[in-house]
Amino acid sequence: MSATDRFVSGAIAAGFAETATLPIDMSKVRLQTQVPCFDGTLKYRGMFQGIYVVAREEGPRALWKGIVPALVRQCSYTGLSFSLYPTIRNAIAGEGVAKEDISFSKRVLSGGLAGGISIVCMNPTDVVKTQMQCATKETSIFGLSRNILAREGVLGFWRGVEPNVARCFIGNACEIGCYDQFKTWIVAGNLLPDGPLSHFAASGSAGVVSAVCSTPVDVLKTRLMNQAGHSGSDQFGRYSGMLDAFVKILYAEGPLALYKGFLPFATRKVSWTIIYFLVYEKVLHVASGSYT
């Protein structure tokens, strides 16, 4: 199986999954970045209510705000992650070790490293996508990019890179590593044949694990990325880095704030992971003539 096959299959699958689940991500971003009104009430109170409010006030198209940078980010990042994963996994496992004999911990570590390396390259697209989703008025990729560049320079596009790397390390470790391990257990244990049902079961389980483990760093990432280009604003210029954001959120909002937007994040994670791996395995099957 060539790296090109994995990259193309990963990119195509990511495009399908991202497009289908972006409205849920929109709701999650609004929930994570909102501040209470003067009377203490919140505009967005849940996943479905958030989707409804955005569609009613800004139009249904607003649910897909940031679709272009989102697709660029996901297709490039995911394709690269899946190209790197087997190479890293086999290097960590050592020569001559059969795939089914590779330990769970090595699969998880390999998935995390593949994700962390890949997202460093794609962080600018995440910053632009997050700001487009937070904006209640119509914005453009170029307008936002010019604003970030003018206010903070090139480094502004790497706002939130620390929690983003942490999130992608954890997320990929859970998604790729757990999916690889769960599928091996399911197929090797003769619970299900290697096909759509085993892929569905393995990907859904991996998505749940990923959501639980990576929500706190996703909240930190979203807060930091949303303030890029707004460093002089009282609302946005509050965090100097990942640790500062963590401490201030804990102090001002309590530990549960690190799980703000968990329902849409978990719903999107599980849905995204299932769609992604079903499409990925099918495209890879067509490209190579066999399931992996």
UniProtKB/TrEMBL annotation:
Which PROSITE patterns does the annotation name? SOLCAR
Per the record, the similarity remark reads: Belongs to the mitochondrial carrier (TC 2.A.29) family.
* GO cellular component term, pick one: membrane
Q: Which InterPro entries match?
A: MCP, MCP_dom_sf, MCP_transmembrane, Mito_Metabolite_Transporter
Q: Where are the Solcar repeats?
A: 1-91, 102-185, 194-286
Q: What is this protein called?
A: Mitochondrial carrier protein
Membrane topology annotation: Multi-pass membrane protein
Subcellular location, in the record's words?
Answer: Membrane
| Any Pfam family the entry gives | Mito_carr
Q: Which UniProt keywords apply?
A: Membrane, Repeat, Transmembrane, Transmembrane helix, Transport
Database matches in Gene3D superfamilies: Mitochondrial carrier domain
Query: Which portions of this protein are annotated as coiled-coil regions?
Result: none
According to its UniProt entry, one GO biological process term is: transmembrane transport
Source species, please? Answer: Cymbomonas tetramitiformis
